[in-house]
Each structure stands twice: as C-alpha cells, then as structure tokens.
Design a protein that fits this description.
about 220 residues; alpha/beta; Rossmann fold; Arc Repressor Mutant, subunit A; 2 domains; six-stranded parallel beta sheet; 6 strands; globular; binds calcium ion
Amino acid sequence: MKINILIVEDHELTRFGLKTTFEGVDYIENIYEAESAERALEIFNDNQIDVVIMDLGLPGMNGIEATRKLRDTNKDVKVIILTSHNDEKEVLNSLKAGANAYCSKEINPQRLVTVVQSVADGAAWFDPSIAHIVLKASTSSRRFDTDASGKDYDLTTREKQILKLMTEGYSNMEIAQLLVISINTTKAHVASILQKLEVDDRLQAALKALKNNIV
Ligand code: CA
C-alpha cells in the first residue's frame, strides 16, 4: 500500500532536497510540500496524509505546535521531526506533542527513506544521536517511569529478540522478514510485549527495554 507524505520546511533548498529524495521511491504515492505550519494544516485538512516530515524552526507556528495540532486532528498520522539541532527540551517537547520519530538533518537520505517507511508501518524511531537524551528523560519523566532494573517482565526469548529489534527502530514488516515469521505472528508478539511491559506504544516499550537493560 502506497502512502502520501507532507514535507513541512521553510528553507526552500532543503525542501527541494527532501522532495527529490522521495521522488521515485516505490512506497510513496504523493508528495505534498508546505513552507509553513499554517499551510501544512490546510493541506492536511484537504488531503489524505500518512506521514509528515516536520521542520521545527518555522515562521509563525513552530513545528512542535504544528505536530500537536496534526496529531490532535488525526491520531493515525505519523510525524517525523527533522531538525538540525538536538536540543534536549526540543526533543522531549516533540515527543510529548506526539512525534513518532526524531531525526537529525545530518541523516543519510537513503536512511531517511527507510525511516519514513518504518514509521508509516508503526515503528517509533529516534536518531542514535538523540537516544541518550530520551533515555535520560526516561529516568525523570513519569510517562516513561519504570520499575527496578533487572526485571525481565516474563518475556519469552522470542519476545526479547523482537523487543531488541523494536528498540533499533525496525517495523513489524522488517521484523517479520528478519525472523522469517508472518506479519500476523509478529503483531501478536508485539501486542504481548506491550502488555507485559504495561506500555501503550512501541516508543515507550523501546525506552523501557533500554532503561531496564532487558535487551
Ligand atoms: Ca526552518
């Protein structure tokens, strides 16, 4: 199934580069562009958008506020923050606003193409360069609160294996392919993992796993 993406970036050359990166990618149907958050919201209301690639520093409404508005409008939309700086507060506010992934603008274009596909498929992904910020926050934020470390939550060997892949940002489809199991089996394992870890989504599961050294 093909997806529609929306690129929100005020810098024209960067926007052009992003658009070029996604042109001809087999899983992409339409590429929409906006030079501001306000324009992005208009496009979003008039079109079926699956994944938004969001700059943070925008004229007018910033990317964090725009992310919150997009996710409030439709919680199925996935938002990938693409920014040039990894400010701790910015990272955490993005995640709180509902961003599904956070990437540095230094990211290799081919890697970004993979990240967009993974996120569209339900994976949470954050750039390795910001992982430490998220992990640090996990020790202080209630949302990411965890139990004593060393606990393995009664995960089976298979579940641990899948959880490790989840922390590395692999999508269900990729995990199924890597482990040579069906997508439905993978989804069932992921559902079981979320339940055992008592978390709502993959990002929280990944954070809890890393924090507690489960994987
Ligand atoms: Ca900008």
